[in-house]
Amino acid sequence: MGVQTQTESQAEVQTQTETLECNNKRVERGVSTQTNTGTTKEMDDWEECGSVELLLLEAQTSQKKKRDSCCDLEVFADLELPGKAGRQTDKDKPEVTATLTNIQDIVELQETGFTVRIQPPGTESFELQVSGQMLVVELHQVLMDHEITCHRTCFSLQLGGTTLDGLKELRSIQGVRDGALIKVVEESYSVRDARLHLRHVRDLLRSLDPTDAYNGVNGSSLSYLTFCTRGNEGNSLVKRRASERESVDCSPPEYILPGSKDRPLSLLQPVREDWKPLQCLRVLTLSSWNPPPGNRKMHGDLMYLNVVTMEDKELNITSSTRGFFLNQSTAFNFNPKPAVSKILCHSLVELLSQVSPAFRKNFTALQKKRVQQHAYERIAAPFQVFTWTAPHGDHTLDCVRAEETHTSYMGMDEHTAGQSRDWNEELQGCRELPRRSLQERLHRERSMFKTNSDFVAAATRGAAAVIDGNIMPINPGESLHLQMFIWNNLFFSQGFDVSEHYQPLGGNTAAHAAAICDLRGAQAIKEGLHILGTAVVDYRSVRVIAQTIVPGILEKNQEQSIVYGSNDNGKTVFTHPRFLEMLDKASKPLRIQHHQVLDHNNRPVELCSGIETIGILGNDGRPYILDLLRTFPPDLNFQFSETEENKEEVPKECQSFGYPCHHHHSLASLRPELIEAFVQHRYEIFMKIVSHELSQLTEQDKAAERSEEPVCDSNTGERAAAMDDIGQRKLIVVISDCCFISDFVEIRRTNVILKACRAVGSVSDSYFDIRFNPDVCSPGARFPAESLEEVQRQRRLLWEAAAFLLSHQIPALRDCLDHTVMPMDGATLTSALHQRGVNVRYLGTILMELDRVEETGRLGHIQRISISEIILRSAKHIFRTYLQDVEPAAFSAAVSHFLNCLLSSSSSCFPDSCSDELLSRRKSRRRRSYGARVALLGDSVWARLTSSELWARIKAEAQDYYHYTFDRCVIEKHNLQRISLLREIAMKTGIQLREYVFESRHKPAFGEEDVINMFPVVRHLKPTSSDATQLVQQAQLAVQQGLLKEGYELISQALTLFSSVCGVLHEDVCMCLRLLGRLSYILGENALSHQEKAVMSSERVHGIDHPQTIQDYTFLALFCFAGGQHSTSLQLLYRARYLTLLVSGDDHPQVALLDSMLGLVLHGLMEYELSLKFLQNALTLTSKYHGATSLKYAHSHHLLATVHESKGEFRSALHHEKEAYSIYKSQVGENHNNTKESLEYLKSLTQQAVILQKAINQIYSNTPSACIPPPKFSTPSLPAILQQLNLTCGIILIPLSAKEIDDLQAEFKGEEKVKAEELENHFLKQNKLSSVDKRQQY
C-alpha cells in the first residue's frame, strides 16, 4: 500500500531525528495486547477451552507424609497442547532440561531485589523494594506513583550527593545496595516540566474516574473483578483467610436464573462505590493571561492557572521555575505579583493543600483509595482498548484534555514539547540493535515494542484527525477519497483505489483488502528485512493506512525509487541482487519459490516474492520492502477473473463444494496455518513413500548380496592361491562388478527420492522442499516459455492445497463435537478457524458441512455463531458504503437508523426527528407524524433505507461473498439473540452505545442519543519476546511429559521475559499467569494470586465481556472455592454466567458448564432449591450438546441425585442415579470404577429410601410400640463438592505410586521415538550398504 501513494506526492518533508531515550524521558516497560502470528497459534493451543482429558503426571499427594509412596495423576483439559509440538520429531524438539537462553541470565532477572530508603524533601524517609534491573528513570516513575511522593514530578535522585543517571540500572551504580539512602532533590521547572506536572496532577485527581476508559484515551480500560470480589473492602483475594465465611445472600438476580430472557445492559458496567465522585476542585484550567509577557519571563514565570476550590474561592496561580505561588491577577486585571509572599511550593498539590482545607481532605482520601487499587487496575496500556457500551456522562472542564487535543491536531508528541518524532528512524534503529546475548535481545525487543506502541497510538490519533478533517491533504485538488496526508512524520492514505492501480485486482474492494494483506505479510517476515511501520485504522467506515516514510521517497520520481518488483501490474519489472539475497533468507520459512517473470523488455527477471512487492533504496542506505500483498499463496477456490477453469485441473473435492467461485477481488490467499498443515501432510506422504520404497530396495539388495557372496569368496581364494596375470584380470573384473552394483544401488535410491519428491510436488528432486509461486494467479505476471511447465505444476500444487483445506481442515472442525473448541462469539469462532488455516470466507461451506454431520444438534451453537457472523460481516460491508456519504452532523441519526433497520422489532423504522438540532420547536411541534419527520430528511440517501431493503442487501451480500442463503426470518428461525448481534456489529464497526431495549414493537429501539461515539478499530504489527516464546514451547513439552514442576519453572521464566519486554498488561503475560494459576492449582499451591492477575489482565487487554475473560472468571471461581471463599466463588460464577448470556445466550455448552458449577457451589452452601434449578438446566444442555449417552450426561444425573438426597427426596435421587448407572454400564462396562461407585451409591440410596418408607408406614400404622429411626439426610461435604467441581472443569485426581509414574513417563517417551527410530533404521541400513560398496571399490 505504501509506494503507490507515497511516491505520488513530490513534496519535501522536513524530519527531525531523535533517539528513543530523548523522545520520551518517561521510559516505561511497555504493554501489548497481542502476539505474532506464529506465537498466537501455539499459545492458543494452550488455552483451548474444552473437556478432552489429557493425563498429566504429578508426583504429589494431598498428604505430604505419603509423598514417597503415591502421587496424583492430574487430568486437566485446558493444558492439552495439540499444536505444532505434536508434529515435531525428536530431532526438532528441544530438551526440557536445556533452554535456548542462558538460564543464569533469567535467574538474575527473577531475583528478589533489595530494599532502599527514599528521602523526600520535608518529610520522613520510607523503605522501597526495588530490583537490580530497574532503571533509575523507572524508579523515578515508581516514586511518581507512590502515595507519599505522587505529587512530585520535577526532581532528581541523588546518592551521596551524586545525581544518578536515569538510563543506568540500579545494580550497575556503585553504592546502591540494600539499605542505601536515595534522596529526592527538587529541580527547577521548564515549560515542558510544568505542563507535565499539570498533566500528572490532573491524572491524580481523575485516578478513580472511569471517564477516560469510557472514552478510550490515555491507555485506560475497565476492570470489574474487585467489584465482584472485594466490594468496598481493601483486601484482595490472596489476603483473605481460607476459613473466611462471608455472610452474603446467595440468591442470584432474576436475570441470572435459568429461563430468564432479560439481558440488562447496565449490569455490564456496574456502578462501583470507589468510583463515586470525590471532587477536590471545581475548576482547574489554564488562565487567559497565558503566555507570560517578556518581563515576567525574566522573573521566571512559565504559565498561569485558574483554580476554583470546593469553597468556591477563585485562585490565580503562577507556575514559575521555582514552583507555584498565588498571584494577584483577576479575570480582568493582570497583576502577577505574589498574593502571599511566604507561600511558594514546589508542587501544585502542596500549594492547593495549604489554601484549601477541602482539597487537602478529599485529596488525601482519594490517594488512599487509589493506592488500594490493584496495580493491574492502575497501569496504562499502550494499545488502547475500547468498550462498545458506556454511560452518557457529563462533560467536564479539563484544561489538559483541551491542550492535548490542540497539540494532537498539530502533530506533536505530548511528551516532547512540540517536537515531532522520526518514526521510521526509530523503528529501523531498534531493528538494527545487537542481539547476541539475552540482555541485548531483551533491550532490542523492549525498544521495538515501546516504539511500536507509541507509533500505533500516534497513527490512531492521526487517522482520526484525517477523517475528522483536521489535517490538510498534500493533494487538495483530488476527491476526498483519493486525498493523502502527512502528519507527525507519518504518511496517511485511504483504502480506495488511487489512479486505478488496483483495477485489475478488483478496484476499491481490492484496495480495501490490500491493506490487511500487506500487514499480514509484514507480520510474517520475522527478521532480516527493513519494513515500514504500518497500522490500519477503520474509523467511521473509512479505512486509513498509516505508514512511516521511506527517507527520500518524497523527493524522487516514482521510476527512480523502485529497484525491485513492479508498481504497474507487471508493465515494468525490476530486480536487484541485494533484495534477492535478503528475500532468499525470508522466503524459506514462508515457502516462497524463486521464479522468473518477463520484464518490460521481455527478458526473464528473477524474483523471490510476489510481483507487486516493491524494493526501494532509501536515502539512509537501507533497503526497504513494501507492498507484501502476495506473501502467502493465492486461494484458487476464490477467483476474481472470469476465465474458464479446466475441469480436469480442478480437484473433485473442490468441484463437490461448487468451487471455484467468483470473488470480489483477486487477493484471496491461503493462511500460513494451512500452508504448514499442508506441508506437514505432504511430508508424511513423502516419508511413507520413501520408507516403503527403501524397504523394498533393502530386501532386493539383501537378495543380491546372498547371490553374489560365493563369487566373491572364490575370487578371494584365487587371489590367495596364485597371483598370476589371469588371477589379476579376474580380480579387476570382480571389482568392476562391485562398482557397478554400488552405482546401481545409489541410482535406485536416488530414484526413490525423485519419485517421492514428484509425488508430493517438491520443487527439488533430491530432497523434500514444498514451495509456492505467489505470481501464478497475478494478472500482470508473464512467464518465460521454458517456465510454463513449472508454472502449471505450481498451479496444480495450489489446487491440491485448496482441496486439502476442503477435505481435511474443514472436516477437522468436527472436533467441536468433543468441545475441545468452544467458540462463544464471532471473534473466537474466527480464531478457531484460523488455527486450522480456514479463512472466514469459507463460512458458507462450513455450514454446508455442519448440515452433513449426523449429530447436527450438538453443533447448534457453532451453526448459530456462523450464521450470525455471515449476517454481521455482510451488514458491515453495507455499513461501510452506507456511512461514507453521511454528513457529519447526521452521524448519530444515520447510525441509529441503520441499527433500527437491522435489529429493531418495530415495523416502522424512520430516522430520528431530532437529527437536526437547529430546527425550531414550533416547526417540530407541527410535524408530529413519522412521515413528516422523514420528509425533513428526504434529501438524505441514508434516511430512505428501510428494514426490508437492508435485509435484502444483506442476503445478497451473504450469497455473493459467503455463498450462503437464508430467509428474512433468520433471527427467529435460528433463535439468534439480538443483544449478541448488537454487540458484534458494534465491535466490528466501532459503534459505542448506551442502554436500550428491544421489546417495543411500536417504537424503534434506537434513538439518536443512544449512539454515543464511534471509535477506531486498529490493526497493527505485534512484536513480542522471542526467547520467552521458546521457553513456552519447552514448557509445552514438559507438561506433555507430565513434568509439571519443570513446566511451571519454564512458564515462570517466560513470564519474566514477557514482562521485561512487553510489561504486565500484555496478552502473552496474561497467558503465562493463567497457566501458572492452573499449574499451581494442580501442584497443590496457592493459585489465587496468579489467577486474580490473569483476570484483571484479561479484562484490561481483551475486554470485560471477552470470552477469554469469562473463562478466566470461571477458573478463578474454582480456585476461590478451593480456598474456602465460597460466596466469592458464587459471585464470580454469577458474573461469568451473566457475561455468557450477554455474549452467547442461554443455549450454549459454556452455560451447561457454569450451571453445573453453580449447582455444586449452591449445594455446598445448602441452597438446594437454587442448586436444582441450575443443575436441571445443565442436564438439559448437556443432553443436547454432549448426547444422552455421554459420560458428562451421566455425571449431571449424579449431581442431581446428590442434591435430591440432601433434600430427602430419595425417589428422585434414585431416578437420576439409575440413569447415571445405566450410562456408565453401557459406556465403560461394569468393572469400571465409575460404574461400581454408581452402583454402591444406588444401594445406599435404596437403603435410605427403604428406611424412610418404613418410618412413614409405621407412623401411619399408629403402632404404639414402633421404634421409628430418625431419617438420615446427608449434608454436602465440601471436599466432595470440590472433587465434583474439579471433575466438571476437567481435573481428575488419580493416586499413583512413584514406580507407576516412572513407567508411564518412560512409555510416553518411548512411543515418541518409535517411529523416528524405525525410519532411521531404514536409512542406516542403506548407508551401511553404500559404505560397504564403496570399500569394495577400493
From TrEMBL:
Keywords: Cytoplasm. Coiled coil: none annotated. Residues 401-639 form the Clu domain. Gene3D superfamilies: Hypothetical protein (hspc210) (3.30.2280.10), Tetratricopeptide repeat domain (1.25.40.10). The keyword Cytoplasm applies. The keyword Ribonucleoprotein does not apply. GO terms for biological process: intracellular distribution of mitochondria. This is Clustered mitochondria homolog. It comes from Amphilophus citrinellus (Midas cichlid).
